[in-house]
Amino acid sequence: MTISEVMRQTGLTRKAIYLYEQRGILHPRKVEAGSTAYREYTARDVQLLRSVSRLRTLGVPLSEIAQALESGRVDLILQRQLLQQQARLAELSNSVERLHTLLHRLPPNSGIDEFDQAADMLLPRTLQPELSDKLAEDFPAGYVRRLAMLLYEAFLDKPLDSPERWNLWYELLDQLKQGVTADLLDAYTEFYGSLTTDQLCEDYRLRRRLVCDYASYGPVQEQAKAREIYFELNQLVCSPAALKQWNHFYHTLVRRVLSAQLAGVMERVRQLSTVYGPYQFRFSEMTRCYLDPLLKTPEGLVLQTRLHDCGAADIFQKGVLIFFDFYNNTLRCILHPDQSRKGNSE
To answer: For residue range 68-123, what is the model confidence (pLDDT) as tens digits?
Structure first.
């Protein structure tokens, strides 16, 4: 179809459509007919332009829209936009509260001296704690979806194509919200808050690849994974830097996550996943058949003692070893790529 028809169907101007093309968002086919050339648009182009328009109404910049289309993760862009808008809203709310308070205290026909006197007396003492309390109250509600995705998105692969599955998703969010604390959110912000969108996408790809690999493991792959984890456990006692990084991750984040997870949350994850059950089973089999025997050898018993002596004995508690494996294969690869390496069979 011609650009005129596209303009009619989308309500966009010619200038806007050309701008999206210049930014690499739209790629119409170029057609030459004799001495003239024109762009030919498809129904897919029209739908894409509608999507871009909707994202623009939400305030998403064109550069981030292009990034979302390239990565395939629009939700990450929307999450970032939500955080930015929440920050602006908090700043605006703070400004309104300051204005109300100051106007209430200013006498009629006030000048700059009266303003300075009121501001010096009121703002530092009363407004900042009130704003801090408000942000603390709003914090969990705004972040629970992001937390759910960071925790479970590698498993959540069933489409929400029925009311029952949508209900499961919302129940998962509601139950997780019950376990969310300010400390847990602070911990996730520390490790994930500074990651770029590209890094978050890479973290997801690594986690998804890990769980899918587990689901297809046989005895050979399980044995290799056990050697890999055993190697990484040795790294903790051989590398002070690796030990410090893991202990910080464990004490800051992992312990809080394990205490926040409710049985109902994981049951809903299982129902929304094709790989969660096989992943759990294969990890358990790998541990029972191959890793545990390695840890019961004379060298393995020495390793366990050394881990205990260096403050990492909790790694063998229920659920912690899974996080250790995830950490080494995902976040550690992003935060400390120079230190990330796999064990081998030698």
So the answer is: 888 888 888 888 888 788 878 878 887 888 787 777 777 777 788 878 887 777 76
What single DSSP character describes residue 124? I
Contact 139, 182 (CB under 8 A): yes
Q: Please state, as a whole number, how many other Cβ atoms lie within 10 Å of the Cβ of residue 225.
A: 24
DSSP string computed for 190-251: HHHTT--HHHHHHHHHHHHHHHHHHHT--HHHHHHHHHHHHHHHHHHHH-HHHHHHHHHHII
Place of tokens 């984040």: 253
Q: Which amino acid is at 206?
A: L
Nearest to 93 by CA among 124, 119, 130: 130
Confidence of residue 67 (pLDDT cuts 50, 70, 90): confident
How far apart are alpha carbons 2 and 240 in whole angstroms?
Answer: 64
The overall pTM is greater than 0.90: no
